[in-house]
Amino acid sequence: MRDLFFLSAAEFTCRTGLVEPGPLFDKRLQKLSCTVAVCVRDNGDLVLIDAGLARKTYLHPDKNFRKAMLRLLGLDLARSTSIVSQLEALGFDAGQVKTIVATHCHFDHIGGLADFPNAELVTTPDELESIGAIGLQPFYRPADLADQVRIRTIQLTEPRKYCCPASLDLFGDGEIILLEAEGHSPGHIAAALQGPDAIYIHAGDALFLDWEIGHGFEGPSRLSKLLCSDARALMRTQQNLRRLGSSDDAPIIVSSHDSRIFEQLPHTPLAPASTP
Ligand SMILES: [Zn+2]
After folding, report:
1. Range of 195's domain?
2. 184 Cα: distance to centroid of ligand 1 (angstroms)
3. Which residue of 53, 61, 63, 202 sits 20 to 30 Å from the alpha carbon of 77, by its own alpha carbon?
4. How many domains in the chain?
């Protein structure tokens, strides 16, 4: 992989009591990110792990979300820009994005699909089924898939990797390995990314903040429990990630929404976008 960097598609705020291990009534606000991994392959193709929200959403947030939903999520789109706009500002073209791996199909992870006409969506059968099951969860929106013609559903048929019970080497070259990480949603996956100088695990919403898989306090957080589809599966996934994080030469584990982790990640490519 030539390059690997991370962008954030949105800023959320959440009551500290919901995401930190302290008292529930702590009403201070915690800032959350919406972290997308951008992999630049040796041939210049881009692979995104999640896609954030669509560009049109930022222009008219009220048309895309009910006001109550925006308030509930503490979603402030005036302070962010879409992933496609950020890639363009870095000199990339939307057409270079050939693959979007969804850690899961909630709107804040696949809404941005609409901005990448050449991309194939990679997801699991359980996620596709969930997005079709209207009313199951407010975070699945069938409209996010409305224009998506190319969808590749994957099965994790390869053995245990990175402490996770099943895996799939997406391109067969070890650069992007998809990992079973169920619990937040039925077919949730993580992705191990072999960057130029480190290995990162994009763990999606398997955890919200990094303490959940630390060793002092133990997760899941209240928010993780509140939003998960299967609490036992989520506990197992967090245990796997905790084990992974404590191993020698542990990879860097990235949660979609932990803005403190996000701030420590690389945000620009090492080489200019125009490098052939
Ligand atoms: Zn999310």
Report:
1. 3-263
2. 9
3. 202
4. 1
